[in-house]
Design a protein that fits this description.
309 residues, alpha/beta, Helicase, Ruva Protein, domain 3, Rossmann fold, 7-stranded mixed sheet, two-stranded antiparallel ribbon, 39% helix
Length: 309
């Protein structure tokens, strides 16, 4: 993995192979990287090593193993070493790669946006189900707090006639989202607007689907929150008002009566500690029916679902 050069920061060393004088091949680097990350309690160390070395060598996972005896040159070793030091410090592998896959669609990610999670892929599944399983012809959706644009772009790709409006209060996040929409050729059907929740939405706009993955983590109760999430992902996209995990859900509820078409669906992601509180916000609204929590594939109450009367 390394040519034996130590990181100059006090108390830190870069990953080194068991034999610093040996040839550094794809397989020896992978093994050394996995072991080094494992000692630092990095989640999924082998997968991190595969993804990072794949980035350095521009190879897929299968190609890495097919070329297991390929030697790395000095520049490749140095680049891999730098990435490994950052990963060992807890920086998310998605940030180091600069992109992440969401429903098979590669998306640009970075410090301005949340890294898309598998649970949010399930939210899109529910959205497609509620849209009726057709191509979205004549239908409109709004993604409130779009971040990287993952939800809006996936819906536009997978529902070819659906039009989507996406809002976010962060201009930096919107810049990432616009790049992603352009990369996937959906800019004609996904419009991004700057503003908090419903604020940039015109009074006369109505939607068949309102969808969101809002912040729901109490900044006063961070037990269980992964350190890399706390350190590297945007607080604006993570945290509710202090002591009030339902704060953003109430913001979402404000515009539903005006902007959700009768018969249309509201869908939002939630999480442990916020599930009941978020559902109760919408259960109290008389113009909504079928208000419920749905479990994710892991069996956790993850999605708030409601239909406009």
């Amino acid at each position: 993995m390394s040519d034996g050069t130590a990181d100059q920061r006090p108390g830190r060393k870069t990953p080194v192979s068991a034999n610093a004088g040996a040839m550094h091949t794809v397989m020896s680097v992978l093994r050394g990287a996995e072991g080094w990350l494992q000692k630092r309690n990095i989640e999924a160390p082998r997968r991190s090593a595969e993804l990072l070395l794949g980035k350095v060598l521009r190879l897929g996972r299968l190609e890495l193993y097919l070329e297991h005896d390929r030697p790395l040159n000095e520049q490749e070793r140095n680049t891999m070493r730098d990435l490994m030091v950052r990963r060992g410090d807890g920086e998310p592998v998605a940030h180091l790669l600069g992109s992440w896959s969401f429903r098979g669609h590669e998306l640009e990610v970075g410090p301005a946006v949340l890294i898309p999670r598998p649970e949010t892929e399930e939210l899109v599944d529910i959205a497609i189900e509620k849209l009726g399983g057709d191509t979205g012809a004549g239908k409109r959706a709004i993604d409130l707090g779009t971040g990287s644009g993952a939800i809006a772009i996936a819906l536009a790709i997978e529902q070819p006639d659906l039009e989507v409006l996406a809002t976010d209060t962060s201009q930096n996040a919107l810049a990432v989202a616009r790049n992603n929409a352009s990369a996937h050729n959906v800019t004609e059907r996904v419009q991004f607007v700057h503003g908090s929740w419903w604020q940039p939405v015109a009074d006369d706009q109505v939607f068949d689907l309102v969808i969101s993955n809002p912040p729901y983590i109490d900044p006063k109760a961070l037990d269980g929150l992964e350190e890399d999430v706390r350190r590297f992902e945007p607080p604006l996209a993570l945290f509710s008002a202090p002591g009030d995990v339902a704060s953003c859900y109430r913001d979402l509820a404000v515009g539903l009566e005006q902007h959700l078409r009768p018969g249309g669906w509201f869908l939002a992601e939630t999480g442990v500690g916020a599930d009941v509180a978020s559902r109760d916000v919408f259960a109290a609204l008389p113009f909504l029916q079928h208000v419920a929590l749905r479990d994710d594939l892991a069996g956790h109450a993850r999605f708030v679902i409601a239909q406009r009367v």
